Amino acid sequence: MHRRRRGELRQALLRIESGKLANALEFGARARAAAIDLPGVVAGEVRIFDPVPMPLERLAGLERAQLLLESASRRALQQCLGPWLAALRALGTQGARARWHLEVDPQEI
User: How far, in Å, CA of 52 to CA of 73, rounded?
Assistant: First the structure.
């Protein structure tokens, strides 16, 4: 098993799929907006990036996008994830035309 060395960044990657890229990116923008006010983000301990198309943008008839959260502190990232997951679930019930999953410390981006 790969062990992280001191100073390596911790990451959480939100992968989003939809029939249209615009829907995936829109959900990503809403997910980013939901994360902006999280304590770790406000304190500057967690960086949140804009949603972007995935490198392999289209797969199995679905358009894909991703959104990355990153921190040098595992604790800061973990403290953001619980409230953010609740917000993501709420977004998913508001007529979103996208499905998503969150991967913590992804092997590939």
Answer: 24
Range of the domain at 67: 17-104
For residue 45, what are its two tokens?
A: 């301990």
Q: Return the DSSP state at 38.
A: S
16: helix, strand or coil: strand
d(CA 63, CA 87): 23
As for how many domains the chain has, the answer is: 1
pTM of this structure: 0.83
Could you give the residue ranges of the DSSP H alpha helices within the chain? 21-35, 39-42, 74-92
The tens-digit pLDDT sequence of the chain (109 residues) is 445 555 689 999 999 999 999 999 999 999 999 999 888 888 889 999 999 998 776 667 789 999 999 999 999 999 999 999 999 998 875 666 888 999 998 876 6
What does DSSP say about strands 46-48 and 10-18: parallel, antiparallel, or unpaired? unpaired
